[in-house]
Hints:
Bound molecules: beta-D-galactopyranose
Radius of gyration: 26 Å
Distance between the termini: 41 Å
Amino acid sequence: MSGAKRGAAVAYVPDRFLYGGDYNPEQWGEDVWREDIRLMRRARVNTVTLGVFSWAKLEPREGEYDTAWLDRVIEMLTEAGIGFFLATPTASPPPWFTARYPDALNVRPDGTRLAHGSRDTYAVSAPAYRAACRRIARMLAERYGDHPGLRGWHVHNEYGTLDYGPHAAAAFRRWLRARYVELDRLNDAWMTAFWSQRYDAWDEILPPVSTQYVHNPAQLIDFRRYSSDEMLAAYDEQVREIRQAGSRAPATTNFMLPTWNHLEQWSWAAHQDVVSVDHYLDSNGPDGEAHVAYGSDLTRGWAGGPWLLMEQNPTGVITRDRTYTKPTSRMIRNSLGYIARGSQSSLFFQWRASVGGSEQWHGALVPHAGEDSRAFAATCELGEHLEKIAEVLAPSADGRLSAAEVAIAWHADSWWALETPHLPNDALTYRDEVRAVHRSLWRAGVATDVIRPGADATGYRAIIVPCLYVIATETVEWLRSFAEQGGTVIVSYLTGIADETMRIVTGGYPGALRGMLGISAEEVEVLAPGERLELSGGLVGSEWSERIALRAASSLHDYAAGVLEGLPAITRNRQGSGEAIYVSTKLEQESRDEFFAAQMKRIGVAPVLAGAADLGVEAIVRRGRERDYMFLLHHGADAATVTGQGIDLLTSTDLANGLALAPGGSAVIRMSDADRIAIMPATPGEK
Ligand code: GAL
């Protein structure tokens, strides 16, 4: 790994795109391992993740270790030139552990203590669990920490198991004492004057366990913050053991996208040598591609540079009640899509399909059918592609991988805030709103970054702020000064409503941002499910609207019907040499697409490649050390032709001769002159 400095972090640049995935040799015998190595070589796999769920095999009885099998697997991999991430297996404590330490099992809010039998059955703050995690991390680090094939540490797996039991209660109180110091300050922050909740002693405070009616929202959000910090402390402890054992290999833990979020990623990212993520499509339809872009842009934001895709499903898209087959071309386009947006890897769950256990129907690089299969041919095809694009790995000297001029401000606090009950409209989620904004920009072909509120915003023309319900004073200042200096800030409904204690800022909505937006809303008008609200200019809103009075702003679109007819719905206020726009309703996706496309055009943010989106082609530029690279992913139905200057690394085609891009196809262009790349429908007869 070589390093390019970016701020405090060192960009993660392995010697090749890491290709492979979770490997569970404990499910087979050595004859299959030999077969695996042969197939890995055939497919050009260079990295596997070992040990994610191997605790019971590695430590069959407390303190008794059996590593002979792992020694052998690592020896075979190393002989074949295949590197490995070594996981600490702490996401799945073995039955002996839970039998011996029943207090270390997690407890649900209703008091049910879970039992082993699946995975993730542990209370993260239980001392016995933490000690057992430290011991096994130490053992693995002492044994394998300086192995030449070790690419890195995969600590735990997808932190995110919440616990509401007695250990959590004690740890939560410790966290609260550190945050508030004095009980009176907590009582004030939580506004415990409401419903007679005043605490007289720290020990009276509980996690938000089942109670008669809705919880205190400040308690709820603090519990989420505590849980994230507690899991981070558990991660840090394992890394400390690894470092004390002398291992210097990079450490990471795989974040999980897209559906749940139990971590505050900005603080976690600072503790990792490289940020990694697991990403599973949330739709089998065309929106899956927008989802890849969303997950990748988020992760690149958290990482502040290159990152690792630790898992995706090679052959399936799993929905609530069925798994759809993922075609080869989609698997390849998705894999290149992650790389285009900063991933240094294409790693999958999993190498070989299991024949037993709970995930026996999960997709794999080697399916049940074995090597004579469409799926394994796809595995080989991707391996070839990744070798051809190796030069893309090294990031630009300033560490920025994207040339985005638009950023979305993201913070987990607001995800959690919108999950607290009893908001005027509990159907609204943070994820949906952020995703919908990102989708509109993606559909317009515009590159997007995701940034932490307060981050360096140099180089952006616009910051979009979807549903940032919880807002710190510094964030308000940050947005104001961005606008003052010529930027465009686009703020959605449910932003700037509350301070960090979930206390509403009074005097009109959106409290903290009223001044900057030049408006004041005295009341919210929530819509019924499915109700549509027309705005002037043909836009349509849903779910939410507000009775807005203009102070300094002007109206861009008014409500065109209903009780708010004639009143402003979308407003614009000048701020210094920039502007602040407010969108007071949840625009339906098509309206949102239209609105953002128009705004981008107005402020001069161009799509990455003019005309590409209309052809169903996604164009992404990844900035590199010597050159920049344009990735073209054809999700559409009609053949296209690409011309200009540059070389497609996948086919070695010189664009000067015209590059045919078939539906489903991909290209990775080493650019000579970005402005001269053009895309158009293929001439009739060309396929
Ligand atoms: C991930 C997990 C893997 C596997 C996979 C299935 O979230 O890390 O172990 O369960 O999901 O999609």
